[in-house]
């Protein structure tokens, strides 16, 4: 399953983008990934969590990564962010292996704002808890950054530099954290639901800022989220994942459902259709497992809720660009 999307006019490419387009910003080739069990080995009898996953994004793209809880979005973003080791041929960011080439992250070219990042923040070379008694000014000015970019982000996120982080609200603290995460001019940004605490204005202004980063600098963003407010026209591409398999990857403008209904309704429709199939497959699998002798279940049976084989979902293959 190979999907390649060329940059579209809505990506805001300037003339100097010719070179950028030669090396895709993100390239995933037939990715397979399994979390190791306690013995460090893949659990026997289970299919890979992520399988047969291919997707290419050119510079300037904004891709929404959509899928049910447990679909594999965070896992995928972590792999792209170099947090999990995979064969370098399967995942390239800016033409390099994110796991093996640590300069991608240390240079700020690749930025991952996800789970662990929500609790701590990189400050002066250390990961420090975001709730410590320190001012927003000290945190934000502790990161080496272009002063104009810093001022712009402080304005976009409407940050009061005198805020003490241990006394402000969750949303205010999150603004400081997001500001710090965006201070370096990233080329590829991976966002794993970071806007949950933001109010409507902060979220809208941040989303607008991210659009300008792609249009003006050719940055590429993959954003995993369950909150679709304000995102109807935001993405250039939609990537829909179910059971670790890419079900749909298309330019947003090429998705017929989005011409008729909102992004939220569209996603709800996809999820409901897939949920019904997965539930039925789970039931079948459990019934089969119940019939087998207990000894056989050790290696080949019901896996406590996870399917031991993939269900063909209605979107499979035909919705992925080839
Ligand atoms: N460290 C781990 N070890 C083993 N399994 C894991 C680990 N992390 C996640 N998983 C499993 O991988 C599957 C996908 O998890 P993942 O966090 O990638 O899903 P997600 O799409 O981001 O879900 P959500 O929308 O709930 O954040 C889940 O079944 C989860 O239990």
UniProtKB/TrEMBL annotation:
Gene3D superfamilies: P-loop containing nucleotide triphosphate hydrolases (3.40.50.300). Pfam families: ABC_tran (PF00005). SUPFAM superfamilies: P-loop containing nucleoside triphosphate hydrolases. Keywords: ATP-binding, Nucleotide-binding. Residues 1-20 are annotated as: Disordered. PROSITE patterns: ABC_TRANSPORTER_2. The keyword Nucleotide-binding applies. Residues 26-268 form the ABC transporter domain. One of its GO terms (molecular function) is ATP binding. InterPro entries: AAA+_ATPase, ABC_transporter-like_ATP-bd, P-loop_NTPase. It comes from the Eukaryota. This is ABC transporter family protein.
